[in-house]
Design goal:
The protein is an alpha+beta fold. 16% of the residues lie in helices and 28% in strands. A hairpin with a 2-residue loop joins β1 and β2.
């Protein structure tokens, strides 16, 4: 096979979410979840997530963001509206730092712009939410965010914001990382 084919097969996509409390770097599962990754990369690249807040921080469960209204009820995909789930038995909410699409109250095929990051294993979300990446750097930052004080609706009392997102393409990524 050609060098270009080998390079394409080994390519890994990642991005860094620059938050007000530090950086979170994620590897994306572009091959398994092309729509979720394309949506997230398109929204991130357009600045859609810039200066938005994480509107839900539930210790021992998840950190949720991606709603431009900051309330948890808004946002749409880069195509407008929703896109279908991409559920795979080998991509699971298997531990801390899994990146997943939020949907409308567990309804199938209602992915828009909102996403969440797991604070620990969440097996009840397997087969319900699309896992499209995992945290590969920034566990210390996720720890700090998880300890944020929250109100009765689990919204951080001091905004935890996404300042910007940097997209990386690493064609020689080490497959043993993470």
């Amino acid at each position: 096979s050609s060098f270009c084919t080998l390079l394409k097969l080994s390519q890994k996509m990642s991005l860094t979410v620059h938050t007000s409390l530090g950086d979170l770097k994620f590897e994306l599962y572009c091959e398994e979840c092309p729509k979720a990754c394309e949506n997230f990369l398109a929204l991130a690249g357009s600045g859609y997530y810039d200066n938005t807040v994480f509107h839900r921080c539930m210790k021992g469960f998840i950190l949720q963001g991606g709603d431009p209204t900051g309330k948890g009820k808004g946002g749409e995909s880069c195509w407008g509206g929703y896109f279908p789930d991409e559920l795979h038995s080998h991509l699971r909410h298997s531990g801390r730092g899994m990146l997943s699409m939020a949907n409308r109250k567990g309804q199938a095929d209602t992915n828009g712009s909102q996403f969440f990051i797991t604070f620990c294993k969440q097996p009840h979300l397997n087969g319900v939410n699309t896992v499209f990446g995992k945290l590969i750097h920034g566990l210390d930052v996720l720890d700090i965010i998880e300890r944020s004080a929250v109100d009765a609706k689990f919204r951080p009392t001091i905004d935890v914001a996404i300042k910007s997102i940097t997209i990386h393409a690493n064609p020689i990524a080490d497959s043993s990382v993470g």
